[in-house]
Amino acid sequence: MAAPKKVCIVGSGNWGSAIAKIVGLNAGRSSKFDSTVKMWVFEELVDGQKLTEIINTEHENVKYLPGHRLPENVVAVADLVEAVSGADILLFVIPHQFISRVCDTIRGKIKQDALGLSLIKGVDEGPDGLKLISEVIREKLGISVSVLMGANIANEVADEKFCETTIGSKDKAQGALLKDLMQTEHFRVTVVEEADVVEICGALKNIVAVGAGFCDGLGFGDNTKAAVIRLGLMEMIAFARLFCSAGPVSSETFLESCGVADLITTCYGGRNRRVAEAFAKTGRSLEELEKEMLNGQKLQGPATAAEVHIILKNKNLLDNGRFLTLRIPSHWMQCLMMMMMMMQCNSKLISQQLH
Ligand SMILES: NC(=O)c1ccc[n+]([C@@H]2O[C@H](COP(=O)([O-])OP(=O)(O)OC[C@H]3O[C@@H](n4cnc5c(N)ncnc54)[C@H](O)[C@@H]3O)[C@@H](O)[C@H]2O)c1
């Protein structure tokens, strides 16, 4: 029988910690996986105590997932290289702006036949245009990478409220192994082959959520928000058809949890919608609102919007009526422009974070 696979979770924010509950449980009860799951924690002090120490003694991530007990076989490790060494499966679950630096730190220090699974929602913009986060990982580490995206607000997953998710994997055997690791009674996994489309959906829905937040902040009703969601979905499909040219882009993928379901949940419940609503209501800066409202968690929508804007601009696709169309209300457009201006002021900072 094959040796049990060692699993490492690279990241321990809100989603990383919710995933640690699932993976710890499954690894603890399946002979396919080593029962110890390492979780890399970006070390910080919480009330004067190291977060890793709190997690390893109290089995709770009191900062990013308070009120949820993590399985005792999940071990927090502050040293990134130590956490990933010897792992057969690496789950990447950090805000996308940190992925390049993390990969650079572990390059050459991981098993060469390790499998990656990216749960990161976002895109990068390289010299040739769009770059998926899975591509960044694949290129920097030379490993095979699948993705997991879906209508999965972390706190609800941690509460074991039923939900679905989508794994995108071009390799059937890898997809099946990752499904064994991730699926529980409450967290149902579907595996599809169009991994790039799954990932694009996960990134772009955060931009639409920002639009939904503007709608709420400007006092538009549910009908308007439904229109924003519908237009957003159309643009996600158009974007995927343009940029996922290496394989098919089928409508069915947008009907999986990673597509329409994630879009709906994010436009009603997610942090990007919440902060965008506050932005439209108060006009205060995104940094201020992120700091005040999210307790260390990171916003993804505005940074992804800025990256996608640059990608479309470089391809001369902004003014051809295909993207960011003028069908949307003008107040909403003003908010978007204001946010873009702020993001442009911050673009230096973003590019420093990205590279
Ligand atoms: N939270 C959700 O509901 C949810 C659901 C699905 C997917 N996601 C995606 O998962 C990814 C991770 O999000 P999250 O919610 O777990 O994170 P988070 O926003 O809750 O937490 C931020 C994390 O970043 C870490 N961090 C801060 N500075 C860092 C640095 N310089 N380098 C590395 N790490 C640093 C913090 O320690 C913390 O663990 C994102 O791409 C997000 O879009 C989140």
Automatic annotation (TrEMBL):
Q: Which UniProt keywords apply?
A: Cytoplasm, NAD, Oxidoreductase
Active-site feature positions: 205
Query: Start and end of every Glycerol-3-phosphate dehydrogenase NAD-dependent N-terminal domain?
Result: 6-173
**In the record, what terms sit under GO molecular function?**
glycerol-3-phosphate dehydrogenase (NAD+) activity; NAD binding; protein homodimerization activity
E.C. no = 1.1.1.8
Sequence ranges assigned to domain Glycerol-3-phosphate dehydrogenase NAD-dependent C-terminal in this UniProt record: 198-317
Q: Where does substrate bind?
A: 121, 271-272
Q: Does the keyword Hydrolase apply?
A: no
Q: Which Pfam families match?
A: NAD_Gly3P_dh_C, NAD_Gly3P_dh_N
Q: Does the keyword Cytoplasm apply?
A: yes
Annotated localization? Cytoplasm
Catalytic reaction equation(s): sn-glycerol 3-phosphate + NAD(+) = dihydroxyacetone phosphate + NADH + H(+)
- Listed GO biological process terms: carbohydrate metabolic process; glycerol-3-phosphate catabolic process
Positions contributing to NAD(+) binding? 11-16, 42, 98, 154, 271, 298, 300
Query: What's an example GO cellular component term for this entry?
Result: cytosol
Looking at the record's lineage, which domain of life comes first? Eukaryota
Instruction: Note the InterPro entries from the entry.
Output: 6-PGluconate_DH-like_C_sf (IPR008927), 6PGD_dom2 (IPR013328), G3P_DH_NAD-dep (IPR006168), G3P_DH_NAD-dep_C (IPR006109), G3P_DH_NAD-dep_euk (IPR017751), G3P_DH_NAD-dep_N (IPR011128), NAD(P)-bd_dom_sf (IPR036291)
This molecule's function is given as: Has glycerol-3-phosphate dehydrogenase activity.
Record's family? Belongs to the NAD-dependent glycerol-3-phosphate dehydrogenase family.
Fill in the subunit field for this protein.
Answer: Homodimer.
Protein name from the UniProt record: Glycerol-3-phosphate dehydrogenase [NAD(+)]
What taxonomic classification does the UniProt entry list for its organism? Eukaryota, Metazoa, Chordata, Craniata, Vertebrata
